[in-house]
Design goal:
single chain, globular, 21% strand, binds 2'-monophosphoadenosine-5'-diphosphate, 2 domains
């Protein structure tokens, strides 16, 4: 939506923001401001470069200024778990916060989002941490690749922050067999143990699969650089043994991994959908309204790929 159709900033404008370090490449302002404009809200979404040592101060400042909410990106998602006043079940499950909503009590004592209260709330404001990344991955796999994960065999590459959330979420979606591969094998083994205790119906193996798999998912950072090697050992696994491939990386749009997957005949998708859906769900958490997903998708594609 063009700026001219948007209400001008005035004293009633409400704010959301993403905090990260670094932040200048974030696509979230383009994504969220398109959504806010389409909903006709006189809100704005900003981006701030906040080093980890100042995260606590930044959260307190946003609360004091009655921001509607925040998104958090690298390196704040784990740190914030100990800095918000209360955690939604989603943040407890995944052990990370990527969305914060500021809330206050209404006349009946229920905690509600600040914009529901109109003016300045009479009582205390609290911050509530959510995680929308895990749901976004599943929604993106379904939307981009048509995958229904229950009963599937999945090879997951990476057991860092993103890989851990992906593995746990895939297990709660009742994937039948999860193969975990990570450069640091001990991290994959620890994650396998965690899944075995939290999601026993899923079989977990550390290492490459012998049979075919329904999906190979890259949750490593390999592919961000044009010269990066493949995120798996090509001597131990061939993409011709996979039906579909998903790369959480979305910039570049086609990594070497996705190019090879397409050449091997896999259905393939990058992580732009995950970025879109985590943002759409955050917007719904703040507004209580359905997110205008297609408007947000177009804004995101224009921002990231210039299309
Ligand atoms: P994120 O939050 O994006 O997951 P992370 O926690 O630093 O970031 O995880 C990065 C992932 O990419 C890890 O799986 C990491 O492997 P290690 O656990 O062994 O560090 C993987 N990774 C990063 N650089 C790599 C490389 N050069 N070769 C193989 N794997 C790599």
């Amino acid at each position: 939506m063009s700026g001219s159709l948007r209400q001008a900033i005035d004293a009633t404008t409400r704010y959301c923001a993403v905090l990260g370090h670094p932040i200048k490449h974030s696509a979230s302002p383009a994504l969220q401001n398109a959504g806010l404009a389409a909903l006709g809200l006189n809100w704005r979404y900003l981006a701030f470069d906040v080093p980890p040592a100042l995260l606590r101060d930044a959260l307190a400042g946003a609360k004091a200024m009655r921001f509607v909410g925040l998104n958090l990106t690298v390196p704040h998602k784990l740190l914030a778990c100990d800095m918000v006043d209360t955690l939604d079940e989603s943040a407890v499950s995944w052990g990370a916060v990527n969305t914060i909503r500021f809330e206050a009590q209404d006349g009946a004592g229920a905690w509600v989002p600040l914009p529901c209260l109109g003016g300045v709330p009479p009582g205390a404001v609290r911050s509530r941490g959510f995680n929308t990344d895990a749901d976004a991955l599943v929604r993106s796999l379904r939307q981009s690749l048509g995958l229904d994960l229950a009963g599937m065999k999945v090879l997951l590459l990476g057991a860092g922050g993103a890989g851990r959330v992906a593995a746990l979420k895939l297990a709660t979606e009742r994937v039948a067999h999860l193969f975990l591969v990570n450069r640091t094998r001990s991290k994959a083994e620890a994650l396998a143990e965690e899944i075995r205790s939290r999601c026993p119906p899923t079989t977990v193996t550390v290492g490459y699969p012998a049979p075919r798999v329904d999906l190979v998912l890259n949750a490593t950072s390999l592919g961000l650089g044009a010269e990066d090697p493949a995120p798996f050992d090509e001597a131990q696994f061939s993409l011709s043994r996979a039906a579909a491939a998903y790369d959480m990386i979305y910039r570049p749009a086609e990594t070497r991994f996705l190019r090879a997957a397409k050449a091997a005949g896999c259905r393939a998708a990058n992580g732009l959908g995950m970025l879109l859906y985590q943002g759409a769900q955050a917007l719904e958490i703040w507004t209580g309204r359905s997110a205008p997903v297609e408007v947000m998708r177009r804004a995101l594609e224009a921002e990231v790929y210039g299309t």
